[in-house]
Amino acid sequence: WLAKDGRLRLHLQQEDHQGQDLKEKEIEMKKVFAILAALVLVAQVQPTYAADAYNAEAAPAPQKGGVFLIAEEGNWMPMSTLVASESNTQDTEQWICDGALDSACSANKAVEVRGKFLLPMCKSATDDYCVVSLEISAFGKDFESATYIRNVSGQSFPAVPSVNYPGGSTPSLWEAKNSPSASGTTTYAVMAMGSVSRRKSSNFEMSAFSATVVPYREQTGSWKDPVQIDGKGQDIRGTRKRFVGVDGYDQACAWNEQGACGVPQDFAEGTRVRLTVRIASTIGGWFKGRMKDPLISVSKFSKTNNEIVVESQPATVARMSYTVQDTKDLTAKETTFFNRNGGRGSNDGFMTWAPAWQSETFEYVDYFRPKVTDTASGNSTFWNFSTSDVDGGANKCLADKSKVLGLVTTNAMVFDGGVPKFTGGFLNYKVAGLHYAPGGQELNLGVYDMVMRSETARCLYGFSKAPLSATVSVVNEKGTKTTATTVVNEKNGWLKMAAYGFTFSKKTIKVKISKK
Predict the structure, then answer these.
(1) Which of 259, 372, 400, 444 has the greatest number of beta carbons closer than 10 A?
(2) d(CA 468, CA 461)
(3) pTM for the complete prediction?
(4) CA distances from 373 to 314, 410, 462 (A)
(5) 228 near 155, Cβ under 8 Å?
(6) E strands along 105-225, which residues?
(7) Rounded Cα–Cα distance for residues 282 and 304 (Å)
(8) For residues 413 and 374, is the Cβ–Cβ distance under 8 A?
(9) What tens digit of pLDDT does each residue of 160-218 get?
């Protein structure tokens, strides 16, 4: 819970070592990314129009109960941050940096500086680390170049090339007048965000990247700019501002600023989105995402940057929401889930998320499946992609991060967010979800796409430069193939494979590549 003094407090029910009375522990979370992921304020807005996108995060938790959800990567807090620490351990002191060259965060005072940065719009043809363009294609029409409107107000940091810091901006807002969303709005927000860190006197390094496009309508209200907050008089070691969290961010908004919120809308059916960004050429390996029928191209732009173009339809993702009216009714398993994932709260209630892209969430969905009658609570449309935080392990062909190897996308409620597993000659990728669409009558139908460098596929199978082919199959837990429409083609150095129309429980997508 976010207390009045700004600290995040998680109240965990924990049994003592003798199995006796339950005790309540108050824990101050200090690891910066744990705080940034969990420390969000209670939503100030609920959608007021029937056309607004389904957004379970916008509804408040019951006063004495809780809500269990599945987190979507495109919903993480879109703001630039810089936080320093004395070490990389869990219990270290942390403090706010006002910029990459803040003297309180200098190399002789801070062991580690970490943060998130949002890319600004490119102002010239030679700019690095920026959003080049957003293009939207309405159903059956050519792509329309969206017009840049502005950046939202909020916390930002200037670029410092001397220490390889790219600068930190805010979400950018765009308009595509001839390409409306499902509700008729024509405005879109772009959040292209990276992770950056440095140790001691080293320069900053980029370790992760994600990009999200969201249709929105703007609503005025009592919102404020999200900012890092300090301890209000609890400064440590002189002038350092002690970091205790983030204030002003609203989970119900695609973005928010002083006096306004971007309320998410759904994409119109048949829309395609094309986003072009320039990011560090050290960002490589595998990407995951919420897309359908994606295309990707990567080209060298400068000494430090690649230009990446990603184009696709949005994915329609079935969402899960389970509500407990009173926390005293939580089962031991539900308490375990909360302890694992953390959450935010209001009064005595809480809201907690399990990440859609982590293998532990398969168990989460299986547990709640009977409690929600195997039926989704709503559907959301998403367009996002991000680097995978799981490497390719011992397989050198899949572990190379010197270049972009591939992109795996799906609309599955839960999926393996790492590199596809290569075993027995097959690339295996696990997905799961609830069987029924909202209302309990229609089936949820699966979408899976993989775009892989042809040279990566040849490396895996030891092939020459001969043209490639592939087979894609969807297999249930019993090893039985299920019905799906599959697509395979090779073009411009990329091998594209897809499976559409399969139903959900637990499924494994199996891909086998061969010479034509």
Answers:
(1) 444
(2) 11
(3) 0.87
(4) 27, 23, 46
(5) yes
(6) 112-118, 130-137, 144-145, 147-151, 172-175, 187-199, 205-220
(7) 8
(8) no
(9) 999 999 999 999 999 999 999 999 999 999 999 999 999 877 899 998 999 999 999 99
